[in-house]
Design goal:
The protein has helices at about 10, 35-40, 40-45, 80-95, 110-120, 180-195, 245-255, 275-280, 295, 300-315, 335, 340-350, 380-385, 430-445, 450, and strands spanning about 15, 50-55, 95-100, 130, 155, 160-165, 200, 265, 290, 320-325, 355-360, 455-460, 465-470, 475-480, 485-500, 510-515, 520-525. The protein is an alpha/beta fold. The chain has two domains: about 10-105 and about 180-210 and about 245-440, TIM Barrel, CATH 3.20.20.80; about 455-525, Golgi alpha-mannosidase II (Immunoglobulin-like, Sandwich), CATH 2.60.40.1180. It has an eight-stranded parallel β-sheet with strand order 9-8-7-3-2-1-11-10. It has a six-stranded antiparallel β-sheet with strand order 12-13-14-17-15-16. The chain has a three-stranded antiparallel β-sheet with strand order 4-6-5, with no helix packed on it. Helix 6 (about 180-195) packs parallel to helix 7 and helix 12 packs parallel to helix 14. The structure holds 1-deoxynojirimycin (NOJ).
Amino acid sequence: MNTTGSPWWQKAAIYQIYPRSFQDSNGDGVGDLAGVITRLDYLVWLGIDAIWLSPFYPSPMADFGYDVSDYCGVDPIFGTLADFDRLVTEARARGLKVIVDFVPNHTSEAHPWFVESRGSRDNPKRDWFIWRDPRPDGGPPNNWLSEFGGAAWTKDEITGQYYYHAYLPQQPDLNWRNPAVRAAMRDVLTFWLERGVDGFRLDTIHHLFEDEGLRDNPPNPDFKDGMAPTLRFDRVHQFDQPEVHGILQDWRHLLESYPGHERVLVSEAYLPLEKVMGYYGGGKGAHLPFNFQLIGAPWDAAFLASLITRYESLLPPGGWPNWVLGNHDRSRVASRFGPDAAPLATMLLLTLRGTPTLYYGDELGLADVPVPPEMVQDPWEKLVPGFGLGRDPVRTPMPWDASASAGFTTGTPWLPLNADFATRNVAAEKNNLLLLTRDLLALRKHETALQTGAYGLIESRSDILTYERLAVDRRLQVVLNMSAAAQHTPVPAYELLLSTRRDRAGEMAERLLRLRPHEGVVLAIRE
Ligand code: NOJ
């Protein structure tokens, strides 16, 4: 198949950088943009096509940058706008695209818009946020809970009204029904488009609108003790309101008005799959509504096979798939599936049909790093301790080498390093997963079938998952042995292109494929 017509974002592998934790350049223990620039060559070596930067905007850091106090700047801890411009220039020089995080649902309480808004009931910016009177008993306007625990309403003593926040009280929700908000946020997108970004990752987009009548949420019939308290209600009125799709369409038009290559919208919405599909907006919404299915899945061949089939079957016409194994909010893949499974999971991610997003450090098999209570930074963990919701363990510094602070900083890292950083780091020779990730990314680039070819499930029996990827005159088969036992399985005559152990390339055989425990292979079928 000729893929020259496919837009870059369909063929690309995206790499998520959490700027605080990637590379520090000034010894303050926190990563920064200048640090990212020094690591671009690594990403090119790895075979990445695009980076997505989590927020680097000015912020009081109540939620580590997801509380933005100025949408058009760079927080001094991360550098300057000049650093950002240099990052774009340097990335572009290396053929890398740059996607930035856009946080439209809420600002920081320190954003001048909110500071004005809370000043008085008749402030011109009052309606930029969601203010309501208390209930007659003085309580919050309804029963909505915050994602981070507790009520989603905070009473502001200045005016005696409550404001709504889907997340922390320090993250007041913007009122997207106000046209002035929509215009101001459109200007923000324009600001970054003019600076040359190639797309946006849209933070928590399903929260953009709430039920206009602010109706109470009904109880969640599936709620059980031990579940995160915020799940006590079925949050039907709190998010995923239809108006969001019009906004996405508008942004898509804006992006399309920029000449040259296509800019991309990647949306984040933790919703059931059927709902996520709606965010494609019939080809007029997000290009890539994040598909988090692999993050929530058990490591089970039959389960994964049906999950992939279901996802593929629900895609709207023209909807391009995407896959994600990890991000800055969820337990790392090496911890979820275990170290033996991590190479197979990477092979799965990089051989399924669709744009993959890799999370920094996962290419090293980095596991969740235990963070002692006295070092906890994440507000979620502080507010709702004991539920395993804390995200610090998945945000620890990237280990680059075996030197004192793993080459991440000359100072003290803001979160602890992985205990095994002396051996698990980029510079360490023989990190099989790192080299495998690189080999897989190279294979994707080389094989049209992997980049844009069709997907077909062949079988999922016991612990073996087998699927094919097809292009004109090329048939690849991916076979993953997800068990701790050696397995054999019938296959057509093949040439082995890549094993997760990286030691069988070029092997030719017919009929029977033998796999070692936890081994996956990509085969080129010769018949
Ligand atoms: C989703 C982001 O991924 C998460 O890190 C953040 O805390 C919330 N949105 C709020 O912005």
